[in-house]
Design a protein that fits this description.
alpha/beta, 5-stranded mixed sheet
Length: 172
């Protein structure tokens, strides 16, 4: 047998540099559907095209909530966050919107993240429609996933709007 054949990767330099891993190209975006008792969490794929549910965080204390968020940010190499902003249908700020905005500010302060507040009017109602269409039962099972589905809808809306904006800019 040839000596060259027994050496692993003998032609590595001829093949050119290794392609970068997707996570090295684009870091992920995480979304939060913030409620008083639960926070739905979703994350983008590494290229920023699609949103997937992660889990529902059952809230305890602010410190514990932020500790859980920190683990998500590290594990998924998150660069940006989107927080659902539940405005009234009129566009006015609701009491829950003030809480979501405070959570967004905590993310900025604690982790130095770029945080986008995203209009999430009717996202929970839409999440219920998706679950109904998928044949998911109501009750306790639904409570466990509704916030995740809402977070996915918030993030997917954000990702789609960003892609549309990039496409418009490229055409101009």
């Amino acid at each position: 047998m040839d000596a060259d054949r027994t050496q692993p990767h003998a032609n590595a330099t001829e093949a050119g540099p290794a392609e970068p891993q997707p996570s090295a190209l684009v870091r992920r975006i995480v979304a939060f559907d913030v409620g008083d008792r639960r926070i739905g969490v979703a994350v983008s794929d590494p290229l920023g095209y699609t949103a997937q549910p992660l889990f529902t965080l059952h809230r305890t204390t602010k410190r514990a909530d932020l500790k859980s968020v920190a683990r998500v940010l590290r594990k998924h190499d998150v660069a940006e966050a989107v927080v659902g902003n539940p405005l009234y249908m009129s566009g006015d700020q609701s009491p829950q919107a003030a809480k979501a905005q405070a959570f967004a500010e905590d993310l900025r302060t604690e982790f130095g993240l770029t945080v986008h507040l995203w209009d999430e009017r009717l996202s929970t109602a839409e999440a219920h429609r998706h679950l109904d269409a998928g044949g998911h039962a109501g009750g306790r099972e639904r409570k466990g996933i509704i916030d995740q589905v809402a977070a996915v809808l918030i993030l997917q809306s954000f990702l789609d709007a960003r892609a549309n904006q990039i496409a418009r800019s490229a055409r101009e």
